[in-house]
Amino acid sequence: MNNVQFNNNVMIKKTLFLTLILSGYLGYSQTKLDGYIETGLKNNEVIKQHNFDINKSMYALKEARSLFYPTVSLNGNYTKADGGRTIDIPVGDMLNPVYSTLNQITNSNAFPSLQNQSVLINPDNFYDAKIHTTMPLLNFEIIYNKRIKNQQTSLQKIELEIYQRELVKDIKIAYYKYLQSVEGIKIYQEALVLVKENKRVNQSLYKNDKINRTAVLRSDNEVIRIEANLETAKQVSKNAQSYFNFLLNQKLDTPIEVDESKSLPTEALSENTQNREELQKLTQVKEINETVGKLTQSYWFPKLGGFADVGFQDFDFNVNKDSRYYFAGVSLEMNIFSGNKNKYKLKQVEEDSKKISSQTDNVRQQLLLQFQVAQNNLKAALEQYNANKNQKESAKKYNDDITKLYKEGQAIYIELLDAQNQWVNAQLNTNISLYISWIAYAELERANATFTLK
Questions:
Q1: What is the fold, at CATH topology level, of the domain defined by 3-70+139-301+337-448?
Q2: Quick one: DSSP state of residue 90?
Q3: Percent of the chain with pLDDT strictly greater than 70
């Protein structure tokens, strides 16, 4: 093992150990956050639109399945005609000589002479009423069309899961930023109490001629500065609250329940990017493209269908046993030549397949990079939090010591002010790094697709 690998392993183990030592369980806060996530997934309008698309795809699939069933319709027509083309039937010319001979033989007129007939081609006063039934017996276009609709429905569901994961990540980050802003308000409120006390003490010391007016003026400025920072923090918190409620699709001023936990993320995530929905989506797209190729190839396959008619037809609206009829059969269609149209369609499908394979390789690398960057960001955030936490403890001790010395008259106000600023900044930095760690964890969780969607 080379030195680089050894150092990387040591850093990973150190980070994991640091995470487990510094962290506890995030119970109550996580439960509230899960509730907010459930609300966001339920109320989000874009998710509703995705569900509408999925429902539409399901109906399209049912429509494709219905093509396998017979189609039955009631058809009827009535015709009234006069003139036009006719069919001449020379009945008289053919039978009159025969009839004349028979009359001579029988010495009678039993066989009258006949006139030649002329029949209209268009039927006059004719009706036809029937039940017409058709059914595909063998049609690969219908088979592959159903398969494509089914695959498109699966694709819609995958796209919905992708959006849901993004929404979960956004809700978590917005929640952590709101908690960060609330904690920042508390820090500034405590700092305001501290500087106001300093102002009171300095005014008292000034009245007793123990300090000069400079310390009083400086303490006044500190009160004004902290009040301004506190007001800014409140506005930042309101903005964070509005954005969080916007993601949940509820009123922007809806109160947000806040937990006081200071724990850190404890779960170490192993790389799982191969199960990302983005790759599943490309796999589904590839399957659809393959089915489209089979659909194009089915051009050469025969199409076999059946039909049957049952009904009545006659003149003058007569209905009797002679009017009844049925007519049934099968049809066969087989394409022979189309000017290489389908050949070029298959070439397009092949190029699309190559493009999808290239996209899959590129997306796989991007997802792996995203995971590694998010993992490194989390490690850096945890290390920064540890450093800020130690600085916070040191700044607290230093501030307590200087405050005691100042009250005893052994330290000047500038030293006290410096110690207090270090203490406030250390609290703010620790608060920021705490929630940056949680934000980094949310991004890592998204990069690894480990959040369980209900």
A1: Outer membrane efflux proteins (OEP) (1.20.1600)
A2: -
A3: 92
